[in-house]
Amino acid sequence: MNNDEKSIAYAFIANGVQIYLSDSLNYFTISKLICNNCGHSWYMNLTECFLCGALNPFLYRCGECGSFQSITKSSGKCSKCNSIKLVTACPNPDCLSNKNERVFEEANKFGGVFNKDSGLLISQQYCIKCGNDTHRYQNYKIYVRKINKDKIDFKDLGIKQEEITDKTRLIIKRVGKNNTISYGLLKLKEFINKPIALDGLRKDFNLIAEELFPIN
Protein backbone atom coordinates (compact mmCIF):
# COMPACT_ATOMS: atom_id res chain seq x y z
CA MET A 1 0.00 0.00 0.00
CA ASN A 2 1.20 3.50 -0.76
CA ASN A 3 0.87 6.36 1.72
CA ASP A 4 -2.41 7.63 0.26
CA GLU A 5 -3.99 4.19 0.55
CA LYS A 6 -2.66 3.81 4.10
CA SER A 7 -4.09 7.15 5.18
CA ILE A 8 -7.53 6.17 3.85
CA ALA A 9 -7.30 2.73 5.46
CA TYR A 10 -6.41 4.24 8.85
CA ALA A 11 -9.25 6.74 8.51
CA PHE A 12 -11.68 3.85 8.01
CA ILE A 13 -10.28 2.06 11.05
CA ALA A 14 -10.82 5.22 13.10
CA ASN A 15 -14.48 5.02 12.04
CA GLY A 16 -14.86 1.46 13.34
CA VAL A 17 -14.44 -0.21 9.94
CA GLN A 18 -12.37 -3.36 9.41
CA ILE A 19 -9.73 -3.45 6.65
CA TYR A 20 -8.70 -6.47 4.58
CA LEU A 21 -5.80 -6.20 2.13
CA SER A 22 -5.87 -7.91 -1.25
CA ASP A 23 -3.09 -10.10 -2.63
CA SER A 24 -2.64 -7.73 -5.55
CA LEU A 25 -2.42 -4.67 -3.27
CA ASN A 26 -4.30 -2.64 -5.90
CA TYR A 27 -7.29 -2.31 -3.62
CA PHE A 28 -8.50 -3.25 -0.16
CA THR A 29 -11.79 -4.47 1.22
CA ILE A 30 -13.67 -2.73 4.01
CA SER A 31 -16.25 -4.42 6.20
CA LYS A 32 -18.49 -3.36 9.06
CA LEU A 33 -20.97 -5.35 11.13
CA ILE A 34 -24.23 -3.41 11.20
CA CYS A 35 -27.87 -3.77 12.17
CA ASN A 36 -29.84 -5.28 9.32
CA ASN A 37 -32.66 -2.78 9.89
CA CYS A 38 -31.19 0.64 10.70
CA GLY A 39 -27.50 0.29 9.82
CA HIS A 40 -26.21 1.12 13.30
CA SER A 41 -22.93 -0.50 14.37
CA TRP A 42 -23.24 -3.96 15.88
CA TYR A 43 -20.55 -4.51 18.50
CA MET A 44 -19.14 -8.01 18.90
CA ASN A 45 -17.40 -6.99 22.13
CA LEU A 46 -20.61 -5.68 23.68
CA THR A 47 -22.30 -8.07 26.08
CA GLU A 48 -25.77 -8.41 27.59
CA CYS A 49 -27.11 -10.00 30.75
CA PHE A 50 -28.39 -13.47 29.87
CA LEU A 51 -31.18 -13.14 32.43
CA CYS A 52 -32.72 -9.79 31.49
CA GLY A 53 -30.91 -8.45 28.40
CA ALA A 54 -29.43 -5.37 30.09
CA LEU A 55 -26.31 -4.02 28.39
CA ASN A 56 -22.96 -4.33 30.09
CA PRO A 57 -22.24 -0.89 31.63
CA PHE A 58 -18.59 -1.83 32.27
CA LEU A 59 -18.90 -0.82 35.91
CA TYR A 60 -18.04 -2.43 39.21
CA ARG A 61 -20.64 -2.48 41.97
CA CYS A 62 -19.45 -2.47 45.55
CA GLY A 63 -20.79 -5.38 47.60
CA GLU A 64 -20.69 -3.27 50.76
CA CYS A 65 -22.15 0.15 49.90
CA GLY A 66 -23.74 -0.61 46.49
CA SER A 67 -22.00 2.24 44.65
CA PHE A 68 -20.87 1.88 41.02
CA GLN A 69 -17.49 2.84 39.61
CA SER A 70 -15.64 2.53 36.33
CA ILE A 71 -13.79 -0.70 35.64
CA THR A 72 -11.00 1.14 33.84
CA LYS A 73 -10.39 3.56 36.72
CA SER A 74 -10.76 1.02 39.50
CA SER A 75 -7.86 0.43 41.89
CA GLY A 76 -9.38 -2.82 43.14
CA LYS A 77 -11.12 -1.06 46.01
CA CYS A 78 -14.38 0.86 46.27
CA SER A 79 -13.71 4.58 45.91
CA LYS A 80 -16.29 5.34 48.63
CA CYS A 81 -15.79 2.71 51.36
CA ASN A 82 -12.52 0.99 50.34
CA SER A 83 -14.20 -2.40 50.20
CA ILE A 84 -12.58 -4.98 47.93
CA LYS A 85 -15.93 -6.67 47.24
CA LEU A 86 -16.33 -5.39 43.70
CA VAL A 87 -18.45 -7.29 41.16
CA THR A 88 -19.50 -6.63 37.57
CA ALA A 89 -23.18 -6.74 38.45
CA CYS A 90 -26.20 -6.32 36.18
CA PRO A 91 -27.38 -2.67 36.39
CA ASN A 92 -31.06 -3.67 36.15
CA PRO A 93 -32.52 -3.64 39.70
CA ASP A 94 -35.34 -5.96 38.58
CA CYS A 95 -32.98 -8.60 37.18
CA LEU A 96 -33.09 -12.01 38.88
CA SER A 97 -29.41 -11.61 39.65
CA ASN A 98 -30.38 -8.71 41.93
CA LYS A 99 -33.82 -9.81 43.22
CA ASN A 100 -33.36 -13.55 43.71
CA GLU A 101 -31.03 -14.27 46.62
CA ARG A 102 -29.85 -17.62 45.28
CA VAL A 103 -29.07 -16.24 41.81
CA PHE A 104 -27.48 -13.17 43.40
CA GLU A 105 -25.10 -15.31 45.44
CA GLU A 106 -24.29 -17.58 42.52
CA ALA A 107 -23.52 -14.64 40.21
CA ASN A 108 -21.38 -12.83 42.76
CA LYS A 109 -19.45 -16.01 43.53
CA PHE A 110 -17.97 -15.69 40.05
CA GLY A 111 -17.42 -11.94 40.22
CA GLY A 112 -20.82 -10.77 38.96
CA VAL A 113 -23.04 -11.28 35.92
CA PHE A 114 -20.58 -9.66 33.50
CA ASN A 115 -17.54 -11.55 34.70
CA LYS A 116 -16.30 -13.86 31.93
CA ASP A 117 -16.47 -16.86 34.30
CA SER A 118 -20.08 -16.34 35.39
CA GLY A 119 -21.80 -17.93 32.38
CA LEU A 120 -24.51 -15.25 32.70
CA LEU A 121 -23.45 -12.97 29.86
CA ILE A 122 -23.99 -13.26 26.12
CA SER A 123 -22.87 -11.21 23.12
CA GLN A 124 -25.06 -8.42 21.78
CA GLN A 125 -28.45 -9.82 20.70
CA TYR A 126 -30.38 -6.64 19.84
CA CYS A 127 -29.51 -3.38 18.10
CA ILE A 128 -28.88 -0.66 20.65
CA LYS A 129 -30.61 1.89 18.40
CA CYS A 130 -33.76 0.18 17.05
CA GLY A 131 -33.96 -3.14 18.92
CA ASN A 132 -33.77 -5.29 15.79
CA ASP A 133 -32.35 -8.78 16.35
CA THR A 134 -30.55 -9.37 13.04
CA HIS A 135 -27.25 -8.05 11.74
CA ARG A 136 -25.02 -8.39 8.68
CA TYR A 137 -21.63 -7.45 7.29
CA GLN A 138 -21.61 -4.55 4.82
CA ASN A 139 -18.60 -4.90 2.51
CA TYR A 140 -17.01 -2.73 -0.18
CA LYS A 141 -14.04 -3.06 -2.50
CA ILE A 142 -12.06 0.19 -2.30
CA TYR A 143 -9.66 1.76 -4.79
CA VAL A 144 -7.81 4.93 -3.82
CA ARG A 145 -6.45 7.47 -6.27
CA LYS A 146 -4.72 10.80 -5.62
CA ILE A 147 -5.83 13.18 -8.37
CA ASN A 148 -5.05 16.86 -8.91
CA LYS A 149 -7.23 17.46 -11.97
CA ASP A 150 -10.82 18.63 -12.32
CA LYS A 151 -11.70 15.72 -14.58
CA ILE A 152 -10.30 12.27 -15.34
CA ASP A 153 -11.17 9.39 -17.66
CA PHE A 154 -11.81 5.91 -16.38
CA LYS A 155 -8.99 4.50 -18.51
CA ASP A 156 -6.49 6.68 -16.61
CA LEU A 157 -7.32 5.03 -13.28
CA GLY A 158 -5.47 1.82 -14.04
CA ILE A 159 -8.40 -0.33 -12.89
CA LYS A 160 -9.54 -3.38 -14.82
CA GLN A 161 -13.17 -3.23 -15.86
CA GLU A 162 -13.74 -6.90 -15.04
CA GLU A 163 -12.75 -6.26 -11.39
CA ILE A 164 -15.61 -3.84 -10.85
CA THR A 165 -18.83 -4.90 -9.10
CA ASP A 166 -21.79 -3.08 -7.56
CA LYS A 167 -19.80 -2.91 -4.34
CA THR A 168 -16.68 -1.35 -5.87
CA ARG A 169 -15.95 2.23 -4.84
CA LEU A 170 -13.30 4.75 -5.83
CA ILE A 171 -12.10 7.19 -3.20
CA ILE A 172 -10.51 10.32 -4.60
CA LYS A 173 -7.94 12.10 -2.47
CA ARG A 174 -7.22 15.60 -3.71
CA VAL A 175 -4.66 18.01 -2.29
CA GLY A 176 -5.48 21.63 -2.92
CA LYS A 177 -3.98 24.98 -2.04
CA ASN A 178 -2.12 25.18 1.27
CA ASN A 179 -2.12 21.36 1.32
CA THR A 180 -5.82 21.19 2.09
CA ILE A 181 -7.21 17.70 1.50
CA SER A 182 -10.64 16.81 0.18
CA TYR A 183 -12.24 13.46 -0.62
CA GLY A 184 -14.63 12.10 -3.20
CA LEU A 185 -16.58 8.86 -3.28
CA LEU A 186 -17.65 7.29 -6.58
CA LYS A 187 -19.50 4.11 -7.50
CA LEU A 188 -17.12 2.95 -10.21
CA LYS A 189 -19.68 0.93 -12.17
CA GLU A 190 -21.45 4.18 -13.05
CA PHE A 191 -18.32 5.71 -14.61
CA ILE A 192 -17.04 3.02 -16.95
CA ASN A 193 -16.27 4.70 -20.31
CA LYS A 194 -17.32 8.07 -18.89
CA PRO A 195 -15.29 11.10 -17.83
CA ILE A 196 -15.21 11.59 -14.08
CA ALA A 197 -15.83 15.14 -12.91
CA LEU A 198 -14.31 15.81 -9.51
CA ASP A 199 -17.04 17.87 -7.95
CA GLY A 200 -18.87 17.57 -4.65
CA LEU A 201 -15.68 16.76 -2.75
CA ARG A 202 -15.80 16.66 1.04
CA LYS A 203 -13.25 18.04 3.47
CA ASP A 204 -14.28 15.70 6.27
CA PHE A 205 -13.50 12.01 5.68
CA ASN A 206 -16.12 11.03 8.25
CA LEU A 207 -18.74 12.04 5.67
CA ILE A 208 -17.35 9.39 3.31
CA ALA A 209 -17.68 6.71 5.98
CA GLU A 210 -21.20 7.87 6.79
CA GLU A 211 -22.22 7.64 3.13
CA LEU A 212 -20.94 4.08 2.86
CA PHE A 213 -22.49 3.03 6.16
CA PRO A 214 -25.59 5.22 6.63
CA ILE A 215 -27.78 4.95 9.71
CA ASN A 216 -31.52 5.15 9.09
Structure characterization notes:
It is a single chain. This protein is an alpha+beta fold and 216 residues long. It has two domains: 3-41 and 139-212, Trna Endonuclease, Chain: A, domain 1 (3-Layer(aba) Sandwich), CATH 3.40.1350; 50-123, no CATH class. The protein has four helices and twelve strands, in the order αββββββααββββββα. 22% of the residues are buried. The mean pLDDT is 90.
Topology readout:
Layout: H1 3-14, E1 18-21, E2 28-35, E3 47-49, E4 59-62, E5 68-70, E6 86-87, H2 96-99, H3 101-109, E7 121-123, E8 135-146, E9 151-153, E10 168-175, E11 181-187, E12 195-197, H4 205-212
Key descriptive features of the protein:
2 domains; 4 helices; 15% helix; 216 residues; 3-stranded antiparallel beta sheet; single chain
* End-to-end separation: 33 Å
The domain tally reads: 2
Summed over residues and divided by their number, the pLDDT gives a mean of: 90
Structural class: alpha+beta
CATH architecture of the largest domain: 3-Layer(aba) Sandwich
The geometry reads as elongated
Helix content range = 10-25%
Provide a short characterization of the protein structure.
This protein has helices spanning 3-14, 96-99, 101-109, 205-212; strands at 18-21, 28-35, 47-49, 59-62, 68-70, 86-87, 121-123, 135-146, 151-153, 168-175, 181-187, 195-197. With 216 residues, it is an alpha+beta fold.
